[in-house]
Amino acid sequence: MIEFKDVTKSFKNVDAVKGVTCEIRDREVFGLLGPNGAGKTTLIMTMATVYNPTRGEVFVEGHSASAEPDKVKALIGISFQDPKYDRILSAREILEWHAKVTGVEKGVREKRIDEVLAKFGLTGEARKRTWTLSGGTKKKIENAKVFVQRPKIAVFDEPTAYLDVPSRLMVWDMIDELRDEGSTVVLATNMMDEADRMSDRVGIMSRGEMVRVGEPAALKGSLRGRDVIEMKLGVPIPELPGEVSKVEEVKEARFEGDVLKIVLSNGRGLLPHMINVVTAKGGTVQSVNLKEPSLEDVFLYYTGMKLS
Amino acid sequence: MFFADRYMIVIMFVNFMIDLGVSGLSLNNLLSRSVGFDYFLYIAPGANLITATVAAFQSGRDVWRERIIQDTQHYLLTLPVDKSTFAASRLFSGMLRAVVTVLPGTVVIALLYGLSFPFFLVSLLVMFVYSGAVAGLSVAAASMANSLELFATVRSTVQVYLSFFSTQFYPSSILPPAVAAVSAFNPMTWAVQSFRALQAGSVNLGLLAPLAGLSGALMVVGFMLYRRTMNY
User: Fold this and answer.
1) Which single residue of A124, A248, A308, B213 has CA 20 to 30 Å from B103?
2) Interface test with B, best of A41, A63, A73, A89 (most B CBs within 10 A)
3) CA distance A102 to chain B (A)
């Protein structure tokens, strides 16, 4: 288990992480969500012993990250958002060195490296210097470090950034495998579909604070009453948002291009009435879409960000 | 990976031979009569120590790449390696790499000086200890500098200090008094003198001890400053 107890990390006068208290359970995939600059990476670095908390403490499997960093580091493997390795080296050299330093037994090292390289389709490029490779390939190598290491606690920061769809699915499968083998996975991501599909629980960070933690389904349920109706109109009519906002259940209405977006409770029940209001004002409805709250909506709601 | 720059040994050896051949031979013809000794043999260890300087400075370049260019320090700090071990290994690897790099040049000088095998081993030890001083200086510079310009300037300054404020080119007796005084605090002076003492048939502990002291001090400075960059 990973426990964050009132963790604050400040750089000069800026609090990158503010009073975070939460737990990450054994063998779960914990999605860490938050906009850029929310403090996700700082929180991860604090857990990984790279940053000393300004206040509070992180415990990993009962070991204090501040007092027993070597014990904590022995449990963790991190795939960084931007590849962090010497690009003068080849993929095989990077993986061999990483596996050796992180204590992967000599007997299984080569076999594991071969397997991971083959899964990522990198066997043919394994001996090329990595500075010559594409961004997606470099990212695969960054992820491969953790899959070769198979740590007790695996941390992935945006693991599928720069990757094509087949590679993305491959990474998801491999993360599932890691979890099934007994690893705890921390998944920092901005991709809501990824978090929704992969995570047993998610934590949402905003401006350095952990604003919500829970299972994706439960968090989506917490936004019941925030359905969204999207009406594509032939011609946008500027006064329509104001008109539909007169309905008590409507919480927000605005145009996004030629789509009228209405946030309301009981969207299913009020859909016909909304269409009537729009058509009564001369609107021509070309298509209608009713959306129940998604994890994206949960994210936007709790981070205080606007729909875009 | 230790020699990721695969042609480094060859390049360094060619540089050494150019220094020794062009500078040594031409200056020998100009100076030997006026100084009263074989200037070619006098300057030879200095050429090799300059090669060692370049190779050992690679430690600082590695730290610079890690901190600024490749931005890999956070990754390295997540590995199960104690920070102090990590800092010490940067210095030690620089020393080892320098010794391996100057091995061909040291063989050449050993042949020129007619050193016995035990003295040849002592000459490698001199190279190793001297490289510690350079590795310490380079790591200290790379740990403090936050711009490429500053790092490059410090590197050039260190090379000027090692070459021209030492007895690499001239004995201290003919150096200007101020330069002679400064040269006593220069590891190059003690390394090059230790090397020359081998030609005279002695292992001079009076020369090796100051070299070890200076190298140790500079390594501690490099270690402390580099270790400090790991604290966030």
Assistant:
1) B213
2) A73
3) 6
Q: What b/e sequence results for B145-173 when a residue is b if at least 16 CB atoms lie within 10 Å of its CB, and e otherwise? A: beeeeebeebbeebbebbbbbbbbbbeee
Q: Which two tokens stand for residue B150?
A: 């500053």
User: How close are the terminal C-alpha atoms of chain A, in Å?
Assistant: 36
User: Which of B79, B84, B90, B93 is the best residue to mutate to test the A interface, defined by the most A CB atoms within 10 Å of its own CB?
Assistant: B79
A219-258: b (≥16 Cβ within 10 Å) or e: bbeebeebbbbebebeeebeebbebbeeeebbeebeeeee
Contacts of A12 in chain B (CB under 8 A): none
Among A201, A221, A241, residue at a domain's last position: A221
Residues A159-196 pLDDT 10s: 998 899 999 999 999 999 999 999 999 999 988 889 99
CATH of the domain at A157: 3.40.50.300
Q: What's the pLDDT score for residue B132?
A: 96
Does any domain span residue A301? no
Say if residue A104 is in the same domain as residue A251. Answer: no
Tokens 């990158």 found at: A16
Q: What is the CATH number of the domain that holds A240?
A: 3.30.70.100
What would the pLDDT profile of B117-126 be if each residue is shown by its tens digit?
999 999 999 9
User: Region A219-233: what's the mean pLDDT?
Assistant: 85
| Number of structural domains found in chain B | 1
The reply to whether A157 falls in a domain is yes
Q: How many domains does chain A have?
A: 2
User: 0.80 cut: is pTM over it?
Assistant: no
Domain that holds residue A287: 227-292
Which run of H or of E encompasses A32? strand A29-33
Q: A85 and B72 in contact by Cβ < 8 A?
A: yes
A137 beta partners = none
3-state secondary structure of A239: coil
**A75 is a domain residue:** yes
Residue B157 lies in a domain: yes
CB A185 within 8 A of CB A178: yes
